[in-house]
Amino acid sequence: MLVDAHTHVVAADQEAFPLCPAGLPGDWYTESPCSAAGLLAEMDNAGVDRAVLVQPVGAYSFDNRYAAAGALANPDRFTAACCVDPCGESPALELQRWLDHAGVGGVRFFALSEERSWLSDPETFGLWEQAGASGAHVIVTVFESQFDELAGVLGRFRDLAVSLDHCGFCDVARPERLAGLARFENLHLKVTTNVIDAAVAAAGTARHFVRRLAGAFGADRLMWGSDYCQTHDRPYGDLVRGGIDAFAGLGGAQQDACLGGTALRLWPFG
User: Alpha helices of the chain — where are they, by DSSP H?
Assistant: First the structure.
């Protein structure tokens, strides 16, 4: 079972699902958008069985309707991760509304910041508790410079399974700070295309980096993700092949975990 743990979809019908850009760098959602139906076709061609539709904040901000609709229409193939504004109006009500939506299996806490973010604000801890009570999987999106802040919430919510987007955009040549988070047994890593590309650029292959991550965290805490269609500089099939190759240095059971087993354990499908 091959599972893509990190994808984004953009609606073809922009009247029904208008873009609401968050002002983040890049216009990928207009340069090379891919709908849920388009992603299914790409997955079929590449041999990918299931995928997590991660709310694309850059394209839609906190309007989760399209990712949720894609998962609802294809529950055997997709599950979705919503995103809410923790500093917005009634974030707890918004979070519950989306977690109660069929097809939504988790939440993305998008906290990218060059300085300290809302993650360390005690007023937002209730959102973590709410996610845990709902049985939702939690994704966190932060930079490496925010790892100390992340460690604080991981330690507070040790019973809540958490995935770190893009390995925290770590320095692949010096991943010691990332490895330092392995002490939190509830933390899982999404090894996505941009991390794989960085490792290939640094060492000619991503296999050494992946083996190092597996040694620190255990293969059962790693997941592959394509980042398609935000990453769109090559065909989806090439992203899939690159992901498979990155984990080829692990044993068979470890590869199976990284390429599907871990995601299936953490995310609900069907």
Answer: 28-31, 36-46, 57-60, 65-73, 91-99, 125-134, 147-156, 176-179, 193-203, 207-217, 236-246, 252-256, 262-266
Which of 67, 51, 70, 77 is closest to 260 using CA atoms? Answer: 51
77: pLDDT strictly greater than 80: yes
Q: Give the strands of the sheet with 3-7, arranged side by side.
A: 3-7, 50-54, 78-82, 104-110, 137-141, 162-164, 187-192, 222-225
CATH superfamily, region 3-266: Metal-dependent hydrolases (3.20.20.140)
124-147 tens-digit pLDDT? 999 999 999 999 999 999 999 999
Q: Is the pTM of this model over 0.90?
A: yes
Distance of alpha carbon 236 from alpha carbon 247, whole angstroms:
17
Residue 87 preceded by cis peptide, ω within 30: no
Domain residue ranges in the chain: 3-266
